[in-house]
């Protein structure tokens, strides 16, 4: 009786891609209150789109960050706070609270950093980005031309795949926001610029 050649085992199906993480950068009173020197005139409309995205993605896939004024004043951060003395208050000051519209967006602890860019060990751990692994991120928040761009570039350098939801980001001015988007657009394909409606449409969560 002749031996029969066994049929090769079928190749395993690739694991389905995980849904992206929505990262809401610094939705705080200091950037929303019209009386603040750092208020963005676009904050309200950006928050409306952030709320829609968070409802679409869900609180389990949403991370909210908060900027805290706790950097070492012996470094160049001392110069920064001398330039902006109104912001040189304790982290417990109401200026640094989340705006009411940001409460409840996430089921996870806040990622709090004293740096413009929020990408670092805490955010990487929050989205489960193991070394050598790419995670898809949708960035929103404030301000486009400071903390959003700083987060996007650092995350792209770390190997993440970034979509910046342009109309869910609040720039300090329209001119500075456009400049930041132009710079981030230079980093394709790691960074892509999209609109909220593109993400909300069927299949829009896929990278």
Task: Please give a handful of descriptors for the protein shown.
207 residues, alpha/beta, six-stranded parallel beta sheet, 7 helices, 31% helix, hydrolase activity
Map the helices and strands.
Elements: E1 21-25, H1 29-32, H2 43-57, E2 62-67, H3 76-83, E3 111-113, H4 121-126, E4 136-142, H5 144-157, E5 161-170, H6 174-185, E6 191-194, H7 196-200
Parallel strand pairs: 1-2, 1-4, 2-3, 4-5, 5-6
Helix pairs in contact: 5-6
TL;DR of this structure?
The chain has 207 residues and is of the alpha/beta class. The protein has seven helices and six strands, in the order βααβαβαβαβαβα.
Can you characterise this structure?
InterPro entries: Isochorismatase-like_dom, Isochorismatase-like_hydrls, Isochorismatase-like_sf. This is Cysteine hydrolase. GO terms for molecular function: hydrolase activity. The chain is α/β, with parallel strands linked by helices and 207 residues long. Helix content is 31%, strand content 17%. It contains seven helices and six strands; from the N terminus they run βααβαβαβαβαβα. It has a six-stranded parallel beta sheet. Strand 4, helix 5 and strand 5 (161-170) form a beta-alpha-beta unit. Helix 5 packs parallel to helix 6. The radius of gyration is 20 Å and the shape is globular. The model is unreliable at 11-16 (pLDDT under 50).
